[in-house]
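All the exercises in this workshop are built on plain-text protein records. A record pairs a protein's sequence with a compact description of its fold. Read left to right, the backbone structure tokens trace the chain's path through space. Once this layout is familiar, the rest of the handout is easier to follow. Here is such a record, shown just as it appears in the course material:
>
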Amino acid sequence: MSRKHNHINPFYIKCIALLFLFFVVGCSNTKYLPEGDLLYTGGSVTIKDSIMKKKNRKALEKELEGLLRPKPNKQIFGLRPKLLIYNLAGEPKKDKGTRYWLRNKVGEPPVLFSQVDLDYNASVLRNFTENRGYFKTRVSADSTVRNKRVTAEYIVTPRQQYIIKSVIFPDDSLKMSKIIAKSSRRSLLKVGAPYDLDVIKAERERIDARLKEKGYFYFNPDYILAKVDSSKGDHEVRIRLVIKDDTPVKALTTYKIDKIFVYPNYSLTNDSAVYRKRNMTQYKDLTIIDTTETFKPRIYDRTIYFKKGDVYNRKDHNLTLNRFVNLGTFSFVKNEFKPSDSIPNALDSYYFLTLLPKKFIRVEVIGKTNSASYTGTELNLNWNNRNFLRGAELFTASIFGGADFQLGGTNKGKNIYKLGGEVSLTWPRFITPFNIEGNSEYVPRTKATLRYEYQKRTQLYALNSFNTSFGYMWKENIRKEHQLNVIDVTYVSPNHVTPEYLEDIKTDPALGKVIEKQLIFGPTYNYTYTNTMQKRKKNTIYFNGELDLAGNLTGAITGANIKKNDTIKIFDVPFSQYVKIRSDFRHYLKLGKESELASRLIVGAGFAYGNSRTLPASKQFVVGGTNSIRAFRARTLGPGSYVIPPNTNDNYTPDQSADLKLEFNTEYRAKLFSIVRGAVFLDAGNIWLLHADPNKPGAEISKDFMKEIAIGAGAGLRFDLSFLVLRTDLAIPLRNPALPDGQRWVIDNINFGSSSWRKDNLILNIAIGYPF
């Protein structure tokens, strides 16, 4: 009977030894402490309160611990690597070199107990707690020493929290008092809510903001006094808001706008420049001081929301500044208000604008890889003019070229080369037959684009692609954005198709779609809503909806009907006619400071009719790959339960596409340490054809489509380098709809020990950025 020996991989032994050494050296951090001092390892706060709910008590303890100073040395897995590096580097002999860099840039000095002021921290905790309504709070502080390490412990004993019994707003005869009273329903001070000094401060700022909308330019929150009476009632306070008696007269007065001055060529290095009167241009209510007539005067009139005689309004003030910034032509925008020297209770407004360089060139070099094992590079050369027609228009002319190579796999040698150019002109307004007035802080834009691209796939074919579009982009606010292309035309024509490729089409007709002539024109609309920029919200969402209408009006006018062989051609090419919609909904649930659950649902459908039997290949839906269902390679999944025949031409990677798409993804994300973040994920979905295709059995949508949902799962690491996120995801399929019904759960037959199973089912995705 033979005995089987289990050998331990030497690599694992080295890793364990390295970790052990790192731990031992890390434990010696106290060796380098100054004589008589201790290493401060942090503080803890314990609240002793029998009334407060446990959840509220834990939350308050966490808040209080965040106030403790100083912060201890950063830890990773119980070790302090930055302190370790600081100690190992030693004292450098000069202010440069590797040792200096390691000690002062990478490492951090020890946080010593001599730097900790227990009494000061106790007073900070007491003040914070009392400001939350826990009056007469007691705080005690102590410390514990173990092996030259010391921790601080603070015990907070609060009294019962006070709540707001009543709120009284200013009731004197001042006009502003009536304005404040009318806005009381929006007050942040609510009867029955806990007393909170921060809320009182926020209420004063709210009132100030309201008064700024009514012309009180010189008012500020400090002129409001909150009188708090806690002498009556059981742990209750009465709050009375009053205007201070020493408030200046000008703060009690409303102001109007008088003169408006604009300096488009303001210099930061010479802000006292004297402009002669001959350099002044009067346009409506504006006085423009511009020695070079940089812009047409109407650009200022569209951007500045104040008019002569308007009551000062902070909303219009901020709106104007934001619109100047959004024009994209100024590096610096400054606004000043000065008392008018001609009429009382009026302000002269001054806008000082510093120009960005009018013309500039931007060069981009891009390295890329994709799921089909292509690796390549692209060079973009862009020439830009920020004020092309003296109306803050942006003109861009660019040329680009690139190459993609497959170093291995079925397409080795069939490299892809592309070369092209694009010109675009963007106006900072709506170009329409009728006038559209907007009041958003974001400048609406009209954009016209013309693009050509030549793509050569060696040994196979070449494609000429032309595109032109004209449309509008505008934002209602920071959350809502629209894009409408009134005209969007794409024309694709094949060139230099090789006999080899034509021969392959005979065995695989699907390859013929790639080189079909295409003429696509019609409007497109895109809407985006997001509140993900609100970092404090626990739940945030992102929604993007697309509508693509091609050839519908032309098809209706011409009566095109491919079913009756009434195909209409333009320039000898049948135009595409279809309706396509797609929605992308994402939800982000914040679970902790450095963790969240991110989910996405994609639903898409395209319907070809009239002049077209199917959607153009470029408009069909695909699934799989680094940003989709990661357990399946790009374009290899579906449609439905369709199985790629074993005799399919092996010279080409699969390129499955369809008319319908359903996809769901969810992943848990958490910070592991430093720049490294981890994730575990689950992906599901598939694509389907709307109508049966005899060449693709099982691809059509049916009532049993849920049985054809593919499922994959995996885990990944993300390296957040601030300027980009490098992502690696390792995924395995759990359910494969291409397998026979009843055998689709791949998880039942997982065999990690099989090299062939690992090769076919362990999918490594490397990408830039998060998948959603």
Observations:
- The first helix runs from residue 10 to 27.
- The radius of gyration is 34 Å.
- The CA atoms of residues 137 and 645 lie 77 Å apart.
